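Query structure, 685 tokens:
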């Protein structure tokens, strides 16, 4: 028997914990602590502990599949490539769209972006950041000039006040929750605002349940109190920011008084006052948020409002402060960095910027050029175009994403995907989306490849291969390269290793210029921006100046606006959705992990006992949840953990899929859907 330990990075959340995969006779059989990681110091949450269990699941895809007469038939790689190449070549550039993946490596996101813009010459590439943090990318870029988490995870432990808004950190980013606890042990006050009394709420010094969708009102109110009491950082505002008077004009309105915002949000005025005082007077204060902030039709406003609060209190460019946007998926930051977005190449170089466009066209060397220098469609817009404008988009290549469970209004999504003429899905399991494909390509999982990912704190970390992929499955970069070669572009895709792809990407990406595998192959790795090989990386952004050309941060005067759909006589409750500790997103991996699935085998809807009593609903009773998009039968969980008038569903479970119910109303800038608030009714069945 041979046994070895291979240090790698967790495939679940954006924290970026490292652990060892235990490999026995060539097969991954367990995990073990990797204590040298400065991120998690050898500790992991349950998902990390059992991250080996799905790797050798009997459900893994092992051969290419081609659909014939409505049924999948096993095929050779050559048969699959020939069919895909022949079909893809038959489409005009913008009839093709691609979805990259926050689950695969930087190298593979870069390569699918190059394939889409170079081989297919299409403008349309996006990925699931559209569903989670598109508003962060747009909002923080507008305020600071850079759309990413400003500080680092370890830094949170140094904060004297931590305000967590719209993030169940202790369940969704448990090893970041650990840093919050370290801050608390060091004397920090913890403020938590969320419609649910979660595991995070239990650790807070001040818990503020609020009506989903009132974030800007809450933040404006806190800023009003801070200004009224003279707790703002006058020197920081004067020297490092613009448009403060415009902000002040809005936040000082009577609309945002303690009493009025208490009515809007449901938070007692006294709690709002305490939160403003603790935050405004702390020597350093960190703000943590996640999708409770971003997944709204006002997602960008919400994000900019958090930026306003941190500029007002001077909590940027310093330890223990920051706007800490906790990214969801392990590599959602990296997929954005790699230009798997419809408006940018790598490192947020704009597609419409002619010099950036020329730079990539020259670097890639496609003899017939690349896509036009125009923005493409976001994934949410792609779905609307497919249903509303038949024939405009005809073919799609989806790598490692599952929109048939992750996107809002699933009936609409199914209709959209079924409108395609030709769909290729590349994944590790036959997902709900893969079931609708014409061709399915079997891919390697995180344990079967070398590569890099970029965590929520902009730390670029290594994945290391621990076992071979099952059957004939291949790593994604190899599949994309072989397909590109079949389509006549072997010279542009000559790669023999992930490292070669990384080096090509780093050469055209200023924030990654100074990185290479040698420098990354150590526990602490590197945070971007890292512009030169002798640069140490940047754990804290905006020290001394912001990333805008003039170095200034920009305040945004923002009025509170209600969600697109609010309760009424017919649909009298607010529905909000989220995740649980034991599962990850569409459950593709965690529901194939026996231990995790055993802990939480199915979904539920949370109802406050007063609402349940009025409706005659008992705990565990099967009920029907109905919105204007559809209905779902789901067990009731009657609990005081959810505030009266609000209901909550986790979105992991296909048998009671919350996203049948959610609203695909979009933020006008980020095009992110409003998962966090829609109107719902429930009925006994
Ligand atoms: Fe993995 Fe996130 Fe858990 Fe760390 S906190 S082990 S990265 S799921």
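Result returned for the query:
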């Amino acid at each position: 028997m041979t046994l070895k330990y291979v240090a790698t990075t967790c495939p679940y959340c954006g924290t970026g914990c490292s652990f060892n995969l235990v490999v026995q006779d060539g097969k991954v059989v367990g995990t073990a602590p990797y204590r040298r990681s400065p991120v998690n110091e050898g500790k992991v949450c349950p998902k990390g502990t059992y991250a080996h269990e799905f790797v050798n699941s009997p459900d893994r895809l092992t051969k290419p599949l081609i659909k014939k007469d409505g049924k999948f038939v096993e095929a050779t790689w050559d048969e699959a490539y020939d069919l895909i190449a022949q079909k893809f070549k038959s489409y005009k550039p913008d009839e093709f769209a691609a979805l990259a993946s926050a689950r695969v490596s930087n190298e593979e996101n870069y390569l699918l972006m190059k394939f889409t813009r170079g081989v297919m010459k299409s403008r349309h590439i996006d990925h699931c950041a559209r569903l989670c943090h598109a508003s962060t990318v747009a909002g923080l870029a507008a305020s600071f000039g850079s759309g990413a988490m400003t500080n680092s995870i370890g830094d949170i432990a140094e904060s004297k006040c931590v305000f967590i808004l719209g993030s169940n950190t202790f369940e969704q980013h448990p090893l970041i929750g650990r840093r919050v606890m370290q801050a608390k042990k060091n004397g920090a006050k913890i403020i938590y605002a969320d419609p649910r009394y979660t595991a995070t709420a239990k650790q807070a010094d001040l818990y503020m349940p609020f009506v989903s969708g009132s974030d800007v009102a809450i933040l404006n109110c806190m800023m009003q109190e801070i200004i009224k009491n003279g707790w703002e950082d006058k020197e920081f505002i004067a020297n490092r920011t613009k448009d403060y008077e415009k902000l002040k004009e809005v936040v000082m309105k009577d609309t945002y008084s303690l009493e009025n915002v208490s009515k809007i949000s449901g938070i007692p005025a006294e709690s709002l006052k305490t939160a403003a005082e603790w935050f405004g007077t702390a020597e350093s204060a960190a703000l943590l948020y996640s999708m409770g902030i971003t997944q709204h039709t006002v997602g960008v406003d919400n994000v900019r409002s958090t930026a306003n609060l941190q500029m007002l209190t001077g909590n940027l460019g310093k330890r223990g402060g920051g706007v800490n946007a906790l990214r969801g998926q392990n590599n959602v930051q990296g997929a954005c960095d790699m230009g798997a977005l419809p408006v940018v190449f790598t490192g947020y170089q704009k597609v419409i910027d002619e010099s950036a466009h020329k730079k990539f066209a020259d670097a890639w060397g496609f003899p017939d050029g690349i896509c036009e220098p125009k923005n493409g469609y976001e994934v949410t817009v792609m779905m609307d175009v497919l249903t509303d404008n038949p024939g405009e988009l005809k073919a799609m290549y989806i790598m490692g994403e599952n929109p048939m469970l992750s996107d809002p209004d699933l009936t609409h999504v199914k209709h959209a995907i079924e409108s395609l003429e030709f769909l290729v899905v590349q994944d590790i399991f036959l997902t709900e989306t893969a079931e609708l494909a014409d061709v399915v390509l079997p891919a390697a999982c995180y344990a079967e490849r070398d590569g890099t990912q970029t965590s929520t704190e902009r730390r670029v970390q290594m994945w290391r291969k621990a076992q071979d992929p099952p059957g004939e499955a291949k790593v994604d970069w190899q599949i994309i390269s072989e397909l590109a070669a079949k389509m006549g572009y072997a010279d542009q895709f000559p790669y023999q290793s992930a490292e070669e792809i990384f080096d090509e990407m780093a050469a055209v990406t200023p924030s990654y210029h100074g990185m290479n595998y040698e420098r990354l192959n150590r526990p602490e790795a590197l945070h971007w921006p890292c512009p030169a090989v002798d640069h140490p990386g940047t754990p804290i952004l905006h020290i001394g100046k912001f990333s805008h050309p003039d170095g200034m941060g920009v305040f945004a005067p923002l009025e509170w606006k209600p969600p697109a759909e609010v309760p009424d006589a017919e649909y009298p409750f607010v529905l909000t959705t989220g995740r649980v500790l034991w599962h990850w997103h569409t459950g593709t991996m965690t529901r194939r992990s026996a231990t995790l699935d055993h802990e939480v085998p199915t979904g539920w809807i949370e109802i406050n006992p007063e609402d349940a009593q009025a409706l005659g609903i008992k705990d565990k009773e099967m009920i029907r949840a109905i919105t204007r998009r559809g209905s779902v039968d789901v067990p009731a969980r009657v609990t005081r953990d959810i505030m009266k008038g609000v209901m909550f569903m986790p979105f992991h479970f296909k048998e009671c899929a919350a996203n049948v119910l959610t609203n695909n109303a979009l933020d006008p800038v980020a095009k992110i859907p409003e998962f966090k608030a829609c109107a719902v009714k429930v009925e006994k069945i």
